[in-house]
Amino acid sequence: MTKPKRDPTRENRIHEQIIVDAYGPEEQAMGWYYYLEENMQFPFQAQCIATHPTSPLRKGESVEARRLAPEDACSMRHARDDPMARPEHGRPALAVEGRRRGSINEQAIQDWHYWIEQGYCF
Fold first, then answer.
1. Is position 2 within any domain?
2. pLDDT digit string (tens) for 17-54?
3. Cβ(46)–Cβ(98) under 8 Å?
4. Is the residue at 3 inside a domain?
5. What is the dihedral of CA 62, 65, 70, 71, to 10 degrees?
6. Where would you tag: which of 4, 18, 86, 105 has the fewest CB atoms within 10 A of its CB?
7. pLDDT at 102
């Protein structure tokens, strides 16, 4: 994965809205969870852009994203992969992208991709 050019607007949104006042990795993961919960509208059509060992989807497959995983399923044991992952059925947000450009979901997903691609982690 290539590290994207630093985006000051996105950096500001992440630090001032998503992980603001987060003291450690678990609070950052939950900040991301609440940001995604507030800024995504379900269901939406998505496409798998990467394979993941906990998902049956393969790159290029289409999927309907119906909801975030429950908050308690997003504890730190899963946050290393993604706060949206459920180990038995979930698809990490890192590995999907919304299919409709300009949708409300697009910015939230792109923010998450940017966070990961910059090398930030929990």
1. no
2. 999 999 988 899 899 999 999 988 888 888 888 887 87
3. yes
4. no
5. 100
6. 4
7. 62
